[in-house]
């Protein structure tokens, strides 16, 4: 046991060995919160204070849950791996899924219910609006999705939503219709997983009491990002902090709260302290992750936020290298430079997997991926184009879902005519109308459909029935293999010109199924019921979407959004796209709260790096089909000059001039998108000025030239002056100086 506690500092030791009571560990990035949480579980188990069965730990991602288990098995003797099964470790969604499967009848669900990820949910909502003939310009599907999820996350069913105006009343009606549709199709969206479980525990006393008695210690990582419903869920399981209930041990960092848009509330920390009468709030201030320069930069950035709970991190590791800053002309140059740096790091002996490329928005990964691919550097993307969200994978999963649950209309609609089998839009419309009239699922409606639609659709139903019959005895990987062939998917992609990669991806599902079997450690009884195992696998696919790829463990550079990087650490971090409008994001930069959340995100990004941090930005960037000219991010200006080193040569165009760095530059309200200039206009010279160049105007201050037209006395340029707006100025009149 002494080994377990050997390297902890006094505050960490105190936290790990607290007597059984509620506790809050409030501490900055890299101070060992996750390590403390893990060590506490190991310590509690090892000292016999709790059975593994009595432990429930909530992590933020499946990857984090796996890491926690791996760290634990390193800390505890081999026999632990036997007993760890009893421990419940996972994400909120994963744990809820487990509870709902175990008590599906009490929760009003069939055993093989399916999970909708957010893309499926959106598709389901679109389908609903269409069926009800609702104008989707008046009720945009995405907004409705957001509305429904927000209600559920606040714990509200349609009848409980307060609607004062017609518009909201209509939205609530649609919410009701959506619920009916989901129930009919036996599908559950992410927010529903939580709400359903919460209601189950709340209403069903025997089940609630069972779990309240079972779990003695509930531990929560990244507590700052729990939403209201999640907090209430925890409270219910811990018996509201009553005597005899579980001890709730929460670790978090208010400076890393980055899910406000998803309803997370830092207020939960305060409520937790009050409602559970937390006697112990422990702060950890020593950072073990990053070198001093990186830490100083993070501290300097986050200091610009207000209303913090306040803490400052320090390290014994020494200042380390300066933070490297690079300015590129265009996003492609930025990506090329990043790839060159990685190549040189790898030549010097760095493992690719120790390098992470972070960005604010998924759309930024494309150009990075392209460069990495061309250079032959192995890489993995978290999130972004998620493995389980790829078109071909979704098609294959849809067949599998129909085997598990034929009433899943989303799956039905997706593949009823894919690969094409001559089922026309008319037949489908007839089917949908009939299903609506009879209030039955599409699948169940087919046999009652007369005429030609009935005949062609019956063939599809027969296909699904054959698939089900032929797979009842097959082990999961073979089941998947069979479906890929019998559905015609393999043949279809074989005949496609660029289908090779898709075929490989399809094979990857078989591997995923095999891995799933291995990890789930399915017992003989479960193996005898392939279709129930299949449902578990499909749930796993929905929940693990986006994390699958990066788990491959091979030596690959890791790409992910800053959101996805939370809790992780890497020797080398590249953070690209530090531009106004991109980071801080234009949607958030306008209001203080949004800006502060962006800054917390920046803090998360910077604190992922152990040894070396690269920050970069580009003067122009192609995003969503448009070229944008952005000023560099204000977050760069918030880093003290002494901590950075500029790699790009001082540029005559001014923007990269070393002298300019550190000066306060008025940030623009948002990024500015302009139509892509013709290559000629970019290189064309306008009285010594060119597109992309930074200039100074006596009245409007600093700005970037975003386009230009005309010649001689008629020449005019369009300039983005940030706060002062975007203006067209005549060159002959306006006094413009290169900045
Ligand atoms: P984040 O806020 O980013 O989630 P965290 O507070 O959870 O960070 P950890 O990931 O637990 O921090 O720890 C950061 C790093 O510091 C890890 O590599 C961990 O092993 C190491 N570490 C933590 N405490 C100590 C210690 N007492 N001695 C040596 N290394 C430590
Ligand atoms: Mg952590």
UniProtKB/TrEMBL annotation:
Identify the stretch(es) annotated as Disordered.
Answer: 646-686
Family note: Belongs to the helicase family. UvrD subfamily.
* A Pfam family recorded for this sequence: UvrD_C
Name the InterPro entries for this protein: DExx_box_DNA_helicase_dom_sf (IPR013986), DNA_helicase_UvrD-like_C (IPR014017), DNA_helicase_UvrD/REP (IPR000212), P-loop_NTPase (IPR027417), UvrD-like_ATP-bd (IPR014016)
Q: What class of enzyme is it?
A: isomerase
Q: UvrD-like helicase ATP-binding domain: which residues?
A: 6-291
Q: Which organism is it from?
A: Aromatoleum diolicum
Binding, ATP = 27-34
List the keywords (alphabetical): ATP-binding, DNA-binding, Helicase, Hydrolase, Isomerase, Nucleotide-binding
Name the PANTHER family on file. ATP-DEPENDENT DNA HELICASE SRS2, UVRD / RECB / PCRA DNA HELICASE FAMILY MEMBER
Q: What chemistry does it catalyse, as a reaction equation?
A: Couples ATP hydrolysis with the unwinding of duplex DNA by translocating in the 3'-5' direction; ATP + H2O = ADP + phosphate + H(+)
Q: Which protein is depicted?
A: DNA 3'-5' helicase
List the EC numbers from the record: 5.6.2.4
Upper lineage: Bacteria, Pseudomonadati, Pseudomonadota, Betaproteobacteria, Rhodocyclales
Domain annotation UvrD-like helicase C-terminal: ranges: 292-567
């Amino acid at each position: 046991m002494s080994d377990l506690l050997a390297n902890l500092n006094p505050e960490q030791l105190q936290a790990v060995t607290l007597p059984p009571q509620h506790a809050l560990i409030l501490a900055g990035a890299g101070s060992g919160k996750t390590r403390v949480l893990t060590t506490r579980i190991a310590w509690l188990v090892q000292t016999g204070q709790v059975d593994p069965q009595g432990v429930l730990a909530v992590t933020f991602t499946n990857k984090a849950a796996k890491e926690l288990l791996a760290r634990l098995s390193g800390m505890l003797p081999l026999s632990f791996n036997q007993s760890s099964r009893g421990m419940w470790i996972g994400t909120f969604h994963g744990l809820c899924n487990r509870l709902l499967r175990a008590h599906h009848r009490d929760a009003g669900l069939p055993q093989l219910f399916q999970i909708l990820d957010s893309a499926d949910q959106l598709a389901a909502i679109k389908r609903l609006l269409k069926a009800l003939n609702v104008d989707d310009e008046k009720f945009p599907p995405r907004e409705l999705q957001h509305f429904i999820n927000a209600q559920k996350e606040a714990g509200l069913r349609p009848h409980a939503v307060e609607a004062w105006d017609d518009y909201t009343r209509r939205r609530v009606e649609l919410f009701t219709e959506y619920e009916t549709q989901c129930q009919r199709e036996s599908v559950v969206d992410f927010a529903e997983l939580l709400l359903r479980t919460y209601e189950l525990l709340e209403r069903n006393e025997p089940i609630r009491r069972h779990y309240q008695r079972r779990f003695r210690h509930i531990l929560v990582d990244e507590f700052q990002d729990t939403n209201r419903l999640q907090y209430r869920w925890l409270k219910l399981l811990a018996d509201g902090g009553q005597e005899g209930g579980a001890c709730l041990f929460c670790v978090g960092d208010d400076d890393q709260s980055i899910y406000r848009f998803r309803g997370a509330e830092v207020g939960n920390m305060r409520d937790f302290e009050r409602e559970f009468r937390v006697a112990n709030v422990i702060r950890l201030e020593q950072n073990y992750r990053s070198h001093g320069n990186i830490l100083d930069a993070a501290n300097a950035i986050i200091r610009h936020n207000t209303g913090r709970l306040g803490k400052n991190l320090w390290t014994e590791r020494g200042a380390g290298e300066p933070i490297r800053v690079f300015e590129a002309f265009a996003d492609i140059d930025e990506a090329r430079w990043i790839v060159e740096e990685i190549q040189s790091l790898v030549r010097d002996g760095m493992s690719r997997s120790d390098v992470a490329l972070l960005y604010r928005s998924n759309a930024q990964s494309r150009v990075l991926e392209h460069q990495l691919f061309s250079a032959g550097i192995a890489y993995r993307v978290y999130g972004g184009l998620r493995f389980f969200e790829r078109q071909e994978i979704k098609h294959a999963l849809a067949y599998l879902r129909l085997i598990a649950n034929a009433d899943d209309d989303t799956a039905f609609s997706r593949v009823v005519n894919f690969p094409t089998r001559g089922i026309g839009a008319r037949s489908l419309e007839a089917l949908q109308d009939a299903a609506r009239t009879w209030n039955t699922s599409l699948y169940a409606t087919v046999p009652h459909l007369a005429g030609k639609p009935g005949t062609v659709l019956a063939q599809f139903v027969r296909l699904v029935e054959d698939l089900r019959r032929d797979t009842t005895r097959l082990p999961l990987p073979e089941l998947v293999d069979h479906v890929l062939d019998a559905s015609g998917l393999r043949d279809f992609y074989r005949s496609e010109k660029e289908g090779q990669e898709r075929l490989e991806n399809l094979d990857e599902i078989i591997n995923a199924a095999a891995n799933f079997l291995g990890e789930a450690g399915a017992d003989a009884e479960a193996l005898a019921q392939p279709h129930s195992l299949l449902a578990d696998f499909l749930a796993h696919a929905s929940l693990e979407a986006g994390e699958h790829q990066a788990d491959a463990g091979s030596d690959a550079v890791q790409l992910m959004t800053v959101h996805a990087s939370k809790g992780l650490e890497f020797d080398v971090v590249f953070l690209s796209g530090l531009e106004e409008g991109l980071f801080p994001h234009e949607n958030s930069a306008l209001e203080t709260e949004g800006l502060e959340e962006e800054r917390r995100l920046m803090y998360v990004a910077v604190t992922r790096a152990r040894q070396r941090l690269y920050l970069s930005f580009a003067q122009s960037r192609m995003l969503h089909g448009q070229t944008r000219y952005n000023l560099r991010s204000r977050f760069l200006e918030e880093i003290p000059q002494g901590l950075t080193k500029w790699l790009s040569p001082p540029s005559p165009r001014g923007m990269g001039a070393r002298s300019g760095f550190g000066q306060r530059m008025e940030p623009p309200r948002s990024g500015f998108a302009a139509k892509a200039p013709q290559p000629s206009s970019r290189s064309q010279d306008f009285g010594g000025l060119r597109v992309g160049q930074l200039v100074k105007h006596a009245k409007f201050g600093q700005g970037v030239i975003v386009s230009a037209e005309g010649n001689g006395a008629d020449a005019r340029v369009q300039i983005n002056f940030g706060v002062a707006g975007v203006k067209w100025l005549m060159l002959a009149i306006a006094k413009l100086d290169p900045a």
